[in-house]
Amino acid sequence: MIDSALIGAALWPALVNGLTMGAIYALIALGLTLIYGVLHIINFAHGSLLMVALYAVLVLFERLGIDPYAALVVVVPGMFGIGYVLQRFVINPARHGRDENTLLVTLGLSIVIENLASHFFKTDTRQIETAYTFMMVDLAGAVISMPRLLAFAGALASCLALAVLMRSTDLGRAIRAVAREAQGARVVGIDVDHVFAMSFAIGLACLGAAACFLLPTYYVSPQVGHGFVLIAFTVVVLGGMGSFTGSLVGGLLVGVIESLGGLLLGESLGQIGVFVIFIVILLFRPAGLFGQRT
Amino acid sequence: MNVDSTPGEILLAVDELHGGYGAVEVLRGISLQVRQGEIIALLGSNGAGKSTFINTVCGLLAPGHGRVEWLGRDITRLGSAGIVAQGLIQVPEGRRVFPNLSVLENLILGSYRRGRAARQANLERVLTIFPRLRERSGQSAGTLSGGEQQMLAIGRALMGEPVLLILDEPSLGLAPLIVEEMFGLIAQLNREGLTILLVEQNVAQSLELANRAHVIENGSVVFGGSRAELLATDRLRRAYLGS
Ligand SMILES: Nc1ncnc2c1ncn2[C@@H]1O[C@H](COP(=O)(O)OP(=O)(O)O)[C@@H](O)[C@H]1O
Ligand SMILES: [Mg+2]
User: Fold this and answer.
1) CATH architecture of the domain covering A4-124+131-284
2) pLDDT band at B195 (very low <50, low <70, confident <90, very high)
3) Do B109 and A188 touch (CB under 8 A)?
4) Those residues with Cβ within 8 angstroms of residue A182's Cβ, 6 or more apart along the chain or in another chain
5) Contact, A19 vs A257, CB < 8 A?
6) B39: which of A153, A233, A291, B146 lies 20 to 30 Å off by Cα?
7) What is the pTM of this model?
8) Which residue of A has its CA nearest to B155?
9) Is B60 within 8 Å of A187 when comparing Cβ atoms?
10) Where are the domains of chain A?
């Protein structure tokens, strides 16, 4: 009796917490979805590249005193540039027309990046403390920290901006066109290699934004990407490979399930709920929540 | 057909063009010219190399030896984006519309490289030519019928303000009535001043439209001349018209 009353009272805060983390998951997964949908490659370096972005935010804060939110204007274009160059001059040339090669390149890339990070930053877990780290907001009984609320709003706004870009700009239309009909895209004069590189770049820009929103409430270590990349893959498959709506809904869902799982089963077992739901959904909808059967 | 007796200036001049797929050579030195205002038919049986030729001219396939000139300028290795920007635009075999995009978005992407300034006006013009596309403008292109997809592919090409429009087998797989409509449209576009290179296996109907024809066999041009000259060549008449 007491137990269930306690859980009832804790439900709303857990839900709010889950949603805030879920929005970050959604943003990370959107980048992965974009890259998969257009390039038909699974970017195994996604987690390591998120780690790079997190360290960039950390270094900018510690060395130059740049606020993590202000760092958006540096880190997002920076990740975008890295993505463009990586795809156009490393991944694409190494592809030689075969998807398996790309897989190996991104896998190799992630190993190199993580080793470099371990070398330069050691394996310590690092955090930052800002003036607003411990600022709390009361949302109808759920008390969450200000940076978490900002992360939620920022991640959702980024997802929205990406949706507008994909729907209403020539670049977005070209990206979607190339995803399904690359030859037709060449026929109308779209530079397909450029669109490939732009897609990878935008996918990494999402990581840059996620890192800026995440660091004030999280930590960074050379291995920090592992957990995120696992969850991002889960979100992408759960939502339906290549579906934007699926990534957004899937991300929020995974965040909430993880948080509720933690409440009911304890912190260390919380993620089990994610994988149980994952399997159940795939049993009934093999193409994911919003995936199209082909 | 109100053909000007004075031929227009040369838009496209292809000289001894070779090309193919990797080590496989398909084009064995193709030469032809297209002049402003005409309709040229490019005929040949299945596998003769017509699409390979078109795609090499349009920069979608890497050319071997030979030269492609557009308004006197070398465009052999310009690449498809640069070639589209010149107004040399094709409606590809198999249509190649974007199935996941709406009809409207397909048309908009037709002006991705060229014709962006007059996008709205051109859109209105295309939707007037193809009222069915207007009805279906919000629908995704993958849900259209074959004939509608062909209309969309042509409309998309028109959005790029073509100077020379290349149509690669526009009648392929369409019902006779729709084919009739299609050829009528091609004639109308030509009357409005558009130069057309029509690739077809449907020889009888293309010859009704075309001022001149070229016939490709095995990657070589075996005939180039007027409709009357083609009909006067027994072997070709028998091979392509069956009489
Ligand atoms: N992608 C390809 N790779 C290799 N060979 C091809 C390819 N496409 C066409 N071919 C070959 O090139 C030749 C010419 O084909 P194509 O240009 O499509 O002929 P057409 O358009 O006149 O029917 C054919 O022998 C065909 O088998
Ligand atoms: Mg063909």
Assistant:
1) Orthogonal Bundle (1.10)
2) very high
3) yes
4) A192
5) no
6) B146
7) 0.92
8) A188
9) yes
10) 4-124+131-284
